[in-house]
Amino acid sequence: MSRGWSQIGDSLLKSLNKKVILVVTVTVIASELFIVTDIGPFRFSIGTVVFVYAVLSLHHLLIWPTAILVAAVTLLLRIPFYYFTWLPQEYFAFMLSHRYSGAVYFLFLAVLLRLAGIKEIGRAISWRLVFFLAASVTSANFVEAIVRVPLGEIITPGNLFILVIMSLVQVFLITSLVNISHFQRIKVMDEQERVSYEKMLIVASDLYDELFYMQKSTENIENVMAKSYALHKQLKEQKPQDHALVRTALEIAEEVHEVKKDTVRILAGLSQVLELKKDSHRLYLSEILDLVIKTNRSYSQSLGKIVQFNLQLQEDMEIEQIYPLLAILNNLVSNAIEAIVEEGYVRLQVARKGPILRISVHDNGEPIKERDRALIFEPGFTTKFNAEGVPSTGIGLSYVKGLVESYRGRVCFRERPFEKIFIILLPLKRLTGEVK
Q1: Distance from CA of residue 387 to its chain's centroid?
Q2: Structural domain harbouring 229
Q3: Number of independent structural domains in the chain
Q4: Cα torsion at 172, 173, 175, 177 (round to 10°)?
């Protein structure tokens, strides 16, 4: 038997939207919480606020079906009250002087809201919305009172004044809730956009790494192609007996030329992607540094390390060259994290020294041996190996040096007892876009 009732309940829930059921339930309960004024026969229920707020907030909620359900459930709920003789009869005679008034109220209110097109104009708070809400709620309250009491007892200056004031109070509560909902929705959307933008910046800075290397590779490919073609010309001028060498040199030049064309196409695509991603051409230095710390904190946690991050920023400023600076900082900070064994710190100190931006990255990770200090910026040099003993690429610091020098800056390394320091000196005019 209980299984049969469960199946019936499931089928009802499937046929009716669960949100509608929730709105109807809360509205009916709230409609029994109303204010009865000392002047006039009006009753102003909280159910009005719940119903209209749900109509404005839930875009897929249909006004008419919901209002009919609210009216029906209100009617079915109030009729049995007349048979509860164990409660004071005066209470029910006062509270439910007419069993149909609640049903008529919600049906009439739904008609007015539908005619006013409240869902269309309710996308944002406006004077038009407030006017139509006030007119609809006031009219519905007036009609509800007519159902219960004679018209002559309603139309008096005092009663009409109370009707208008209390209806405006209901409208104020409705618009306040709608405003709060809009604010919360905008706040959530802003947070989602901020997170998406931060991810986009990280991806773009990684692309910038590839772009920088491909630009260098293009120059190398150009040199190889020129040398192979020069070799072909020299061999051809010497007129060797073996013409295969001449053909081979020419084929090498042609193949290198094809590689160059493919590389240039890829380079152009990456450049275009980076340009498209520049939704905001400038960021404050503090925002860039916060993003670096946030990203690398997640990286340290993924490695199972406890790393304390500290930032000391002397002066904030707007930066145009976002991706290069992100790439430089991410490389240095991630290297610092990898050098820490289990627990340590990474400290960023950023200060302006006249026309130069000085950035120093401190960490208390594994020290660099004295014999290796002269080689740390050389391509391919590394002291890092994975669990299988495979060395890393060893291009991180050489990339940082090349990128810094492309902006007419300098990078240097210092070591103190129990601390390593990488210092970056960059011309501010190039970072801020004053000089390209």
Answers
A1: 37
A2: 195-276
A3: 3
A4: 160
